[in-house]
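TL;DR need structure tokens for one chain.
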Amino acid sequence: MYLESQKDCVEFIASVGKHKDIKPCFSTILKSVSKAVIVIDLSGNVKYMNSLSEHLSGWKEHKAAGKPWREVFNIIKESPCENNENRKVILISNKGLKIPIKYETSLVIDDDGTIRGIFLIFSDIHGFNQVNCF
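>> reply
TL;DR here they are.
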């Protein structure tokens, strides 16, 4: 299974609870997807990060685990135009790098319907969203 788009990742994550055979290798699957993934627990703390999310955020999983997600996923919204349309989301890494991203979230729901946390799925869109302010 190749997860190319944000939608693919969200749909896959939502379906994991329905497929018992996927659960044992879930960590391996998350490490293999082509998007950055952070798993956040119900307390709002980082539970898991794949290597791409480590690269983009500048945080190593072992340092980020247990920290508030907003500290690790530090974003701002910028508006390149006066009319405030086409706002960009910028991830600020722990090294101060500003990276334009696209992100989505999905609930982590177990087999009995209990919400266990949130998946945060994001990708670097540098160069993909050129905005014209005319």
